[in-house]
Amino acid sequence: MGTKQKVKIWYDAEGDYLEVVFDEDVACTFQETDNDAVMEMVDPAGNIVGFSVMAVSKLSKEKPISALLYPLAA
User: Domain range holding 46?
Assistant: First the structure.
């Protein structure tokens, strides 16, 4: 087994917004994904450090949502 990493999860019920962050100590930018509800969080080196999901309560309860996360080219 590898090293464990802390993940932080926030949910804003009023904004219906979920955010999952793998590394909170790094500056990042948001980028679109192939799913309109999901944005990826990318650090300056192109590493994915988290993601957000908008309008969580409106997502299908029948199947999971999916999105492709694309890090920046090295």
Answer: 8-57
Q: Which of 40, 56, 37, 58 is nearest to 48 (CA)?
A: 40
Tokens for 11?
């949910």
Put simply, whether the predicted model's pTM sits higher than 0.85 gets the answer no
Strands 48-54 and 17-21, sheet pairing: antiparallel
How many percent of the chain have pLDDT more than 90? 45
Q: What is the mean pLDDT of each run of 10 residues along the chain (74 residues)?
A: 83 95 84 92 90 88 80 56
Q: Is 43 within the bounds of a domain?
A: yes
**Beta-bridge partner residues of 8:** 21
